[in-house]
Write a structure and sequence with these properties.
Hepatocyte Growth Factor; 2 helices; 2 domains; alpha+beta; seven-stranded mixed sheet
Length: 149
């Protein structure tokens, strides 16, 4: 009888421990996530910096239905299969997202300092992601599937 009681207590303890662990994981999911895909911030008011904005989702000012996820320190270049749509001067990453959103064929855009100018490189195809220092890249979440860096 003593063995049965010990086994019952052990089973209850394991069940309670698993329940508490699962409960903590469930509650912390949405609150601890850095993915703001459910409530994208407008580029009109956004201050986009890395690493603070990594994986955050932003909606374009003039095209709020277009949602973009930010990737810090990464790029998609032609050597790895990306296709450039166009490039333009942009003073901020938010402005770069807005430029991409204005182009129907744009699936993502990279932004950063390019020989002393802040340029936005819009892409019609992404290819393979690569590491690129201080570069910022935004992917259209409805037109592309990119794994987190």
């Amino acid at each position: 009888m003593g063995v049965a009681i010990v086994l019952a207590v052990a089973a209850i303890a394991v069940g309670v421990g698993a329940g508490l662990a699962f409960g903590r994981r469930s509650r912390s999911g949405p609150d601890s996530s850095s993915d703001n895909s459910t409530t994208p911030e407008s580029t009109k008011t956004a201050t986009i910096t890395c690493p603070a904005s990594e994986n955050a989702t932003f909606s374009a000012q003039d095209a709020p239905a277009r949602r973009f996820r930010l990737l810090c320190g990464h790029d998609f270049n032609s050597e790895d299969g990306a296709i450039d749509l166009s490039s333009a001067n942009a003073t901020t990453m938010a402005a770069c997202i807005d430029l991409c959103a204005a182009e129907a064929g744009c699936v993502g855009a990279g932004w950063g300092d390019y020989y002393g100018s802040h340029l936005c490189w819009m892409k019609s195809r992404l290819g393979e992601m690569n590491v690129s220092g201080n570069w910022l890249f935004a992917v259209d979440v409805d037109k592309t599937t990119v794994k987190s860096a």
